């Protein structure tokens, strides 16, 4: 204990003793008053029922993500709001029997206010709500509480179904709205396309590419065909000049060459007069004549004459190829021309479209956005539909009665015993408190310590209170009486408390 | 010459002068003469060691009058006054002195403290005390002087030739003498400022060097007497009763007293639980 506190306690005890009459008188006054209040205090009975807020349903984990279970944040407050709503209270005053015919609105209002005061809703845990109804009549307390819980449950289920239904309706409405928007966007695009005769974007480019390729290909094919035709024509022209020696002439010429070689060899050794040379000369002349004869036989112009059958066959084939080639060329030319025209037309169209393309992309974007929103909304609508069905089948968050309202047997609230105990405690505390308060409020010096410490004045001595013999005798007598009085009263009060108040 | 011899000598002289002369000197009425003759001279006839006490307060009388005694039950109270006495003796370096006891407010217990302080001095057989009651409006010690005649301070101040010895009375306690307030309560406080008062206090102190003079005055803050008389004494003691004054009041009262003479504060009437001596 700090010295300061110690001193204060001493001061309090000393002064309390000096004012013991006041202390005892206050004690008795307080005790008597509290006993009287306890005696007159109206008995009240409380009927209570417990409601479970069941949001951990078996359906919920299954439907996780697909459906949103209705959330209830402050269940006790919600419950209080619902229970104290006008509708339920109106039902209750009928059910309890407070209402009677010819009741004025003001009286009705008062009755409702009274019922509200009698009702108490406590949040016991996250999932437990206790509904209490207090009344002087236990029977009525029970009846009212049972009705209250019944109304509450009914009201709550209705509210939840309504809530999820309205959510569904809202989403449904949105779906309709977006569907209409999407249809409109689509119509806009169609209209635009019809007006501008625009090839589809990507296809358009592809087609142009393929056209170019085809034109190029056609050109190559044309060139090829033309070359082929030229070759055929050349072949047809040079057909007669093609030399083809007969075997006879070839033999003669080979003999002539041999003879010439022999002659040349002999001339190296001999004079032209040599007989062999002369013979050789004659042979050569002879072979030459034979060759000349042979050539004469063949036509005389030097060209090789084929035999009639094969020549005709070859010529016919060449002619056939040539005409085929010419036909191909004509076809290719026509195709190339057509392709080039198409390309040109495409290019012209492309040039025309670029200005209108901005509007088109806008329309496309609009369409895409609407489409994605609609997709999302459709998903949500299905989730809402499931939630609604959950609530309709009471599978989502639900209120169930855990503990039925019961008929209260014991009176609730403060009872006589409590008043007696409170009176004893307060009777002991109050006088000391008053004396202490007086010491605190009264600035007059009650402790000699103040004089040296706060006033810095020398303190010579402290003279305690000196009582004369008469005062001593009186105080002894009064002390005895007070002790007897206090003990007897306390004994009586405690025995009353132990035996249990009025019972 | 010892104190005892002085007292003896004075007593003899008075006896020789005769009763008639004394009566005339005192200027008293014939009715009181008888009383004077029979009682008031007794103290002077004996030496201090055997100061004759014509009457003594019994134990029960002391208790009734709230007067401390060395062998009283309530040791704490007696000790408190012993402490006060010791302080005064220390302060006066062993020689006798005059001490003014005043209270911060009316009913503050100055007369109680003054009386018991005087009594505390007489605990010591070698000291005597003289209690002077200067509270002329509310005389505090008349009951002590009641068996004797009540010729006191006012009588002395009013008359011009009354011997101081005539107003000093035994108080029923050994070695304690008393100057009561006197019979003439209408005497103005201004008389306390007079030269005669100064002479009185001077002479009673100087007469015996083992005599301590205790002056009881009314409240310091409510009347002027205490301030007037403080000039005539050696020390001043301020009595502050329990729950009787605020800190500011005490502080201001202390400022009224000459610092050199201000001995200190006596905190009076502190309540206690029976059988306990707190703090």
What does this protein structure show overall?
The complex is a heterodimer of chains A (about 500) and B (about 280). Chain A is of the alpha+beta class and about 500 residues long. Chain A has 15 helices and 5 strands. In chain A, a hairpin with a 4-residue loop joins strand 2 and strand 3. Chain B is of the alpha/beta class. The radius of gyration of chain B is 19 Å and the shape is globular. In chain B, helix 5 crosses helix 6. Chain B is built from 11 helices and 7 strands. Chains A and B meet through helix 1, strand 5 and helix 15 of A and helix 4, helix 5, helix 6, helix 11 and strand 7 of B.
Describe the structure concisely for a colleague.
Chain A is α+β, with helices and mostly antiparallel strands and 503 residues long.
Mean pLDDT of chain A, rounded to whole units? Answer: 81
Question: How are helices and strands ordered from N to C of chain B?
Answer: HHHHHEHEHHEEHEHEHE
Strand fraction of chain A: 5-15%
Order of helices and strands of chain A: HHEHHHHEEHHHHHHEHHEH
- Radius of gyration computed on alpha carbons of chain B: 19 Å
- Share of β-strand residues of chain B: 5-15%
| Classification by helices and strands of chain A | alpha+beta
Strand order of the largest sheet of chain B: 3-4-2-5-1-6-7
**Spans of chain A of 5+ residues with little confidence (pLDDT < 50)?**
none
Overall, the morphology of chain B is globular
Fraction of residues of chain B in helices? Answer: 25-40%
Distance between the termini of chain A: 45 Å
Looking across the biggest beta sheet of chain A, what order are the strands in?
2-3-1-4
Structural category of chain B is alpha/beta
């Amino acid at each position: 204990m700090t010295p300061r506190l110690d001193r204060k306690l001493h001061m309090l005890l000393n002064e309390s003793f000096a004012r013991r009459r006041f202390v005892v008188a206050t004690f008795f006054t307080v005790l008597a008053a509290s006993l009287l209040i306890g005696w007159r205090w109206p008995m009240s009975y409380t009927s209570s029922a417990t409601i479970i807020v069941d949001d951990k349903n078996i359906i919920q984990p299954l439907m996780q993500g697909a459906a949103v279970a209705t959330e209830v944040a402050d269940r006790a407050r919600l419950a209080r709001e619902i229970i104290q709503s006008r509708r339920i209270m109106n039902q209750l005053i009928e059910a309890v029997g407070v209402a009677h015919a010819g009741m004025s609105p003001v009286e009705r209002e008062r009755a409702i206010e009274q019922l509200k005061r009698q009702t108490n809703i406590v949040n016991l845990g996250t999932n437990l709500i206790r509904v209490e109804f207090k009344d002087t009549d236990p029977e009525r307390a029970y009846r009212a509480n049972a009705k209250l819980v019944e109304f509450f449950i009914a009201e709550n289920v209705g509210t939840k179904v309504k809530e999820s239904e309205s959510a569904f309706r809202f989403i449904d409405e949105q779906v309709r709205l977006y569907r209409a928007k999407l249809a409109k966007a689509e119509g806009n695009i169609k209209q635009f396309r019809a007006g501008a005769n625009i090839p589809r974007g990507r296809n358009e480019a592809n087609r142009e590419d393929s056209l170019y390729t085809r034109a190029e290909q056609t050109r190559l094919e044309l060139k090829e065909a033309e070359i082929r035709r030229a070759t055929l024509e050349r072949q047809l022209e040079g057909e007669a000049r093609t030399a083809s020696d007969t075997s006879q002439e070839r033999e003669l010429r080979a003999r002539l060459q041999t003879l010439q070689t022999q002659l040349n060899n002999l001339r190296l050794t001999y004079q032209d007069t040599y007989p062999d040379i002369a013979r050789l000369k004659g042979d050569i002349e002879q072979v030459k004549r034979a060759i000349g004869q042979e050539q004469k036989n063949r036509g005389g112009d030097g060209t090789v004459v084929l035999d009639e059958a094969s020549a005709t066959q070859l010529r016919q084939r060449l002619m056939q190829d040539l005409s085929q080639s010419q036909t191909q060329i004509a076809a290719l030319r026509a195709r190339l021309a057509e392709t080039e025209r198409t390309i040109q037309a495409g290019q012209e169209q492309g040039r025309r479209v670029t200005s209108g393309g901005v509007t088109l992309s806008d329309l496309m974007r609009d369409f895409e956005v609407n489409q994605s929103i609609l997709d999302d909304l459709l998903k949500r609508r299905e989730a809402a539909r499931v939630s609604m069905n959950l609530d309709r089948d009471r599978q989502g968050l639900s209120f169930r009665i855990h503990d039925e309202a019961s008929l209260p047997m014991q009176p609730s609230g403060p009872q006589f015993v409590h008043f007696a105990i409170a009176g004893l405690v307060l009777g002991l505390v109050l006088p000391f408190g008053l004396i202490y308060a007086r010491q605190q409020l009264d600035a007059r010096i009650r402790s000699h310590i103040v004089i040296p410490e706060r006033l810095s004045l020398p303190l010579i001595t402290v003279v305690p209170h000196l009582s004369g013999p008469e005062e001593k005798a009186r105080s002894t007598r009064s002390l005895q009486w007070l002790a007897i009085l206090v003990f007897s009263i306390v004994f009586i009060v405690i025995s009353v408390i132990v035996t249990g108040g009025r019972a | 010459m010892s104190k005892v011899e002085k007292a003896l000598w004075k007593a003899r002289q008075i006896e020789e002068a005769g009763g008639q002369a004394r009566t005339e000197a005192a200027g008293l009425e014939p009715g009181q003469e008888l009383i004077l003759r029979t009682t008031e001279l007794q103290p002077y006839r004996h030496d201090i060691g055997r100061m004759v006490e014509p009457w003594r307060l019994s134990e029960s009388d002391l208790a009734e009058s709230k007067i401390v005694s060395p062998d009283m039950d309530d040791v704490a109270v007696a000790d408190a006054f012993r402490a006060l006495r010791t302080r005064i003796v220390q302060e006066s370096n062993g020689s006798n002195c005059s001490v003014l006891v005043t209270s911060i407010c009316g009913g503050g217990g100055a007369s109680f403290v003054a009386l018991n302080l005087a009594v505390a001095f007489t605990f010591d057989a070698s000291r005597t005390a003289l209690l002077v009651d200067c509270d002329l409006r509310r005389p505090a010690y008349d009951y002590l002087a009641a068996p004797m005649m009540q010729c006191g301070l006012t009588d002395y101040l009013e008359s011009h030739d009354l011997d101081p010895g005539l107003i000093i009375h035994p108080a029923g306690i050994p070695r304690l003498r008393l100057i009561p307030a006197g019979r003439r309560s209408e005497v103005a406080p201004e008389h306390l400022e007079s030269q005669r008062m100064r002479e009185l206090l001077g002479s009673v102190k100087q007469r015996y060097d083992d005599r301590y003079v205790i002056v009881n005055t009314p409240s310091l803050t409510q009347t002027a007497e205490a301030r007037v008389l403080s000039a005539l004494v050696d020390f001043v003691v301020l009595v502050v009763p329990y729950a009787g004054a605020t800190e500011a009041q005490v502080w201001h009262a202390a400022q009224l007293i000459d610092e050199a003479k201000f001995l200190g504060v006596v905190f009076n009437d502190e309540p206690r639980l029976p059988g306990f001596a707190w703090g």
